[in-house]
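Could you please review the protein record set out just below?
***
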Amino acid sequence: MVTRAEKGDWVVQDYVWNPMLIDGLKFDIRLYCSLVSLDPMRVYICKEGLARFCTTAYSPPNPDRHFVNE
């Protein structure tokens, strides 16, 4: 899990090693939300999001070429 904090804002993301595919193509869907309170929990979700679709077939990453940012 990768997190980044600047001025109280947080971005959380996780790389999916076994992604879902559509006709062998990778895609991602982003939903934007804001967690305002935990007790009671209040989350606002933006009505618009983002969808991206690859145009080349997906091939799994090669473990011999795996790089880790430290």
Remarks:
- Residues 32 and 46 are 6 Å apart (CA to CA).
- The mean pLDDT is 79.
- The first strand starts at residue 2 and ends at 6.
- The chain is about 0% helix and 45% strand.
